[in-house]
Amino acid sequence: MALSVSVTVLLCIIVVVLIKGGHVRIGSALVCTLFGFTLAATGLAPAINSALASLAGLAAGL
To answer: Which partner from 4, 33, 47, 52 sits 20 to 30 angstroms from 14, CA to CA?
Structure first.
């Protein structure tokens, strides 16, 4: 749970920075957010969570 909250906060900060910098428009960010919610409801969600956990373990080992 703590990992998913940390990743969520990090990705939120990245999105805000990209919107403020003019690299991503608000509409595009909303579409990507909605895509993420729908993707989380599919059977692919456990594989994505596993990949993120593996990356976090790899980063912690460095």
So the answer is: 47
- DSSP designation for 21: T
Tokens standing for 37? 């919610």
Per run of 10 residues, the mean pLDDT along the chain (length 62 residues) is 70 89 91 88 89 86 84
User: What tokens appear for 62 in the block?
Assistant: 């460095």
Write down how long the chain is: 62
CB 35 within 8 A of CB 41: no
Helices (H) and strands (E) in the chain, counts: 3, 0
Query: 22: alpha, beta or left, given left = phi > 0 and alpha = psi -120 to 50?
Result: left
Tokens encoding 61? 């080992």
Task: Quote the pTM value.
Answer: 0.63
